[in-house]
């Protein structure tokens, strides 16, 4: 997408320097900064400390981290340690494991001399595939928005609500939940997007920044306003992203997503999830029981980052001194609350049967792997 008229991806390879460049999201939306990652350790810090965030982007970053490591040390031991070190940075988002296992499996059979080049080519492929997956999610999501638009009164926009940031900053480009929004706007469909602030890191501000840059009408609202807006008939559909979705369609996403799904269900509002296929965890059925929920630093709940009246970007304490904070980063929305999953291959029900019909080769491979372990 574009920033100040210039196209950016959220990460890109600097071939001259042999380094990975990223948009450092810690400072957004207040300041646009580029960071350079030179080593696997740099990438691990960037993932853990959320310089980059969003399941697809984490996976792509990890793939480039593997390439950086193979350039320095292409040994089997380095390959195994790199995979494990990166996997430990964020436990919930499954794209990280998917990308790391794909890199490990592709490189393990190659001679040491070929690994650095092959790892970099694979990282480029993973990044480019993510862009195409999200573009196609946008096409299928656009069809849903087009179905809603004729039911609106003349001049009334389709009103969408989203939670957290599933925009292009959370992917390599386009975003998952925002891709249908961008494509609908470009197609001339009037939109208005309710953007949840999404505490504790206020990641809705990133979505607001993205939508403003694209000229899409929106309003930045507190997390708990969504139910009220649905009761008043001011939301036509909810569209969120996901960090991990089980093979039966349980959806793990930013904390608070489950509450949006409950409110949508109570008010008859369609609740859709933009789901890139690498985010499906075919090894897990029950999301509530089997998906690990990352517990992040309490400081993220007791402090907020913002721009002061003097123009400085600072952290400010919002809780009483000494107050402990709890910070589960994700929750799980059971599949019966999900209207549909918008994938790169089409829209389907949130069920094992529907997902298997869209991705039979992946479902079969996962089933075979599970049988091999039994």
List the helices and strands and how they pair.
Elements: E1 2-3, E2 6-7, E3 11-14, E4 19-23, E5 34-37, H1 40-48, H2 55-72, H3 76-87, H4 94-108, H5 112-148, E6 158-162, H6 178-186, E7 191-196, H7 204-214, E8 218-221, H8 226-231, E9 237-240, E10 244-246, E11 251-254, H9 257-267, E12 271-274, E13 280-281, H10 287-290, H11 299-302, E14 303-307, E15 313-317, E16 330-333, E17 340-343, E18 346-348, H12 352-358, H13 360-373
Parallel strand pairs: 6-7, 6-9, 7-8, 9-12, 10-13, 12-17
Antiparallel strand pairs: 1-2, 3-4, 4-5, 10-11, 11-16, 14-15, 17-18
Helix pairs in contact: 1-2, 2-3, 2-4, 2-5, 3-4, 4-5, 5-6, 12-13
Main β-sheet, spatial strand arrangement: 8-7-6-9-12-17-18
CATH class of the largest domain: Alpha Beta
The chain-level structural class is alpha/beta
What is the fold-level CATH name, i.e. the topology of the largest domain?
Rossmann fold
Helical amount: 40-55%
Distance between the termini: 46 Å
Q: How many strands appear in the DSSP assignment?
A: 18
Helix tally equals 13
Detail the poorly predicted runs.
none
* Number of structurally distinct domains: 2
Report the radius of gyration as a whole number of Å. Answer: 20 Å
Q: Examine the secondary-structure arrangement and name the CATH architecture of the largest domain.
A: 3-Layer(aba) Sandwich
- Portion in beta strands: 15-25%
Which sheet architecture does the biggest sheet show?
7 strands, mixed
Mean pLDDT: 96
In CATH, the homologous superfamily of the largest domain goes by the name Translation initiation factor eif-2b, domain 2
Shape: globular
